[in-house]
Amino acid sequence: MIFKVAWRNIWRSKVRSFIVIGSIAVGIWAGLLIIGFSFGMNNERTTSAIGTTIGHAQIHSAAFDVEPLSSATLGDPASVGDLRRSVEELPFVAGTAQRTVLQGMINSAKSARAARIMGVWPEDERLQTTLPMNLVEGDFFEENGRNRLVIGEKLANRLGLKLRSKVVLTFQDAEGTLSRASFRVSGIYKTLNATWDEFHLYVHHEDLEKTLGTLLVHEVLVRFNETVDTDEKAVQLASSLPEGLALKSWKQVNPELGFADDMMAIMLVLVLGIIMMALLFGIINNMLMAILERRRELGMLMAVGMNKRKLFLMILIETLMLGFVGGPIGIVLGDLSTRLMMQIGIDLTSKKDGLAELGVQSIIYPEIVPEYYIIIAIMVVTTALIASILPAVRALKLNPVQAIRGE
Amino acid sequence: MSKPVIEIKNLEKVYEGAVPVHAVNGINLTITEGEFTALKGPSGCGKTTFLNLLGGLDKPTSGSIEIGGVDITTLSENQLIDFRLRNIGFVFQAYNLIPVLSAQENVSFIMLLQDRPKEEREARAKQLLESVGLKGKEGQRPVQLSGGQQQRVAVARALASKPQFVLADEPTANLDSTSTANLLDIMEKLNKEEGMTFVFATHDDRVIKKARRIISIEDGKVLSDE
């Protein structure tokens, strides 16, 4: 019957209870939308970076991680082949791709800039990355021809390059001697990561091999089956590597991306915490008002023998019920809104350039994150529990004689 | 001879202040089982303070109150709450029913606090409401009942816990003459038929006329006991 009393008490002041329940529902709805939006944006950014360019992990020689010199290779082609085969045997690995990675300069008729030259095996790149699908002009080494170059749109613009423009690349060979070679732009790509586009250019590994006189492999990109538990998988993969090789997870390859991923979880809990704080004060205010209005009744209950434990329990249940009504409404509204937004997307075209700098498309598709529903449910219950303490203590401090008289 | 229900010895209640006020000033009294007693006196004479002390709602400055052999002045706050629940029935001037509960639920609620089984609660609540003339009104909420009917629910509620006695503070103050007469008849009937002890604090002559023992209080002292 205490539950019945608590439930009916909530509806004694319908307007006030609707306002509190509405606040809880709106707070949770907003929280879920923020979570969905943040995850959608961050995951798109992460998935894009992993899928387009960096993979889930990269294997280099330990020396390359210290300083990415041309001489810091993974070994001869045969040992690289063995390495790739052993890595691909791991159950969570979907595939690998090898790359030559050289630091160098690119000179156009207009300007010169530092660049990272990626000597790629086009078939591997097509299988393991989505960069070949991000070409805005030309092709990704599909047509035959020598010294072809695929360049980021941003770098191309800075250097005043178009398709078929001629450039000169300067880079070091394994002995540290500078080599130069002419290349012609055969493709222009554009990923969501403008910083990557501005610094990385792709050439066919055979063209580099001819210029360098030898085949150099500095990097093996590893793609996992799915972007889940990547830290654990990276640790497992690292432990299987031969001595002298080092593994970097995508978070280490792109620390900014990893930091954003880790920080987002903390930020979202903070945002939810702030929402709950606001709700906390709303609920406390509502319950204090209710206690004040029901002084006579509470005084009577204490006089006739309702002990402190039961009185506390009654107020606790009443407060929790506000959360139990508002919480599910907010979760359902948040879920439905997020699902709707997943279909139509949130159009931020007006902020297109700024978002592109962050590696995000102008239409954000939020995501459902079920574990946050549980976190929110726990936070709502905790908030209601905390909110009930002050009103309950106030009620317990009532003097029954004075309260019955309405003093 | 009836056994004593309440034995009061040298009871004093002093409110400290610039000038100490002796609200209850050395009362000695015994109330026996089955009494129908009225405490009368002008406003401010100390009868409500005295009633609060009897009901364990306030602590005396000195003296003792033995109820069923237990000196309630020695009980802790929590022990007093439990003692009130099991031994004393209360009827208040303003009825003080729980507005969100029906008449029957208001009566049952006290028994719920005593952890009595649901079947017993429901059966006793129905029987008590019938005995105060509210058969058929069990499902109505206080707002749907007249003042007199609400006070009758309050009497049923006071009896629900099977107390040793019922304390009623100005129970008729808010009632018209018909409702007062009805209520007094019901309480008198419960007193005679079930032997329930009633103690009223009142200045209502209609109540005083019905009482079989009238204790006059003035300046915190018993002026007369008839």
Describe this structure in words.
The complex is a heterodimer of chains A (407) and B (226). With 407 residues, chain A is an alpha+beta fold. Chain A has two domains: 2-48 and 258-404, no CATH class; 57-226, no CATH class. Chain A has helices at 2-10, 14-54, 62-66, 77-88, 122-128, 153-159, 194-199, 205-212, 230-239, 250-253, 255-293, 295-304, 308-344, 352-357, 370-396, 400-404; strands at 57-61, 93-107, 112-120, 135-138, 148-152, 166-172, 178-189, 200-204, 219-224, 245-249, 346-347, 363-364. In chain A, the strands form two sheets. Chain A has a six-stranded mixed barrel, surrounded by four helices. Chain A is elongated, with a radius of gyration of 31 Å. The two termini of chain A are 28 Å apart. The mean pLDDT of chain A is 88. By secondary structure, chain B is an alpha/beta fold. Chain B has one domain: 3-Layer(aba) Sandwich (Rossmann fold), CATH 3.40.50. Chain B is 36% helix and 28% strand. In chain B, strand 1 (4-15) and strand 2 (21-32) form a beta hairpin. The mean pLDDT of chain B is 88. At the A-B interface, helix 1, helix 12 and helix 16 of A face helix 2 and helix 3 of B.
Concise structural overview:
The complex is a heterodimer of chains A (407) and B (226). Chain A is an alpha+beta fold.
Q: Mind telling me the C-alpha Rg of chain B?
A: 17 Å
Count of DSSP H/I helices of chain B: 7
Q: What percent of the residues of chain A sit in helical stretches (DSSP H or I)?
A: 55-70%
What is the topology, as strand order, of the major beta sheet of chain B? 6-7-8-3-9-10
> What's the CATH topology label of chain B?
Rossmann fold
> Which percent band covers the strand fraction of chain B?
25-35%
Number of domains of chain A: 2
How many angstroms does the end-to-end distance of chain A come to? 28 Å
**Would you report the number of β strands of chain A?**
12
Question: What sequence of helices (H) and strands (E) makes up the elements of chain B?
Answer: EEEHEEHEHHHEHEHEE
- What does the main sheet of chain B amount to? 6 strands, mixed
Backbone shape of chain A? elongated
How many domains of chain B?
A: 1
Model regions low in confidence, pLDDT < 50 over at least 5 residues of chain B: none
Looking at CATH, the homologous superfamily of chain B is P-loop containing nucleotide triphosphate hydrolases
Average residue pLDDT of chain B = 88
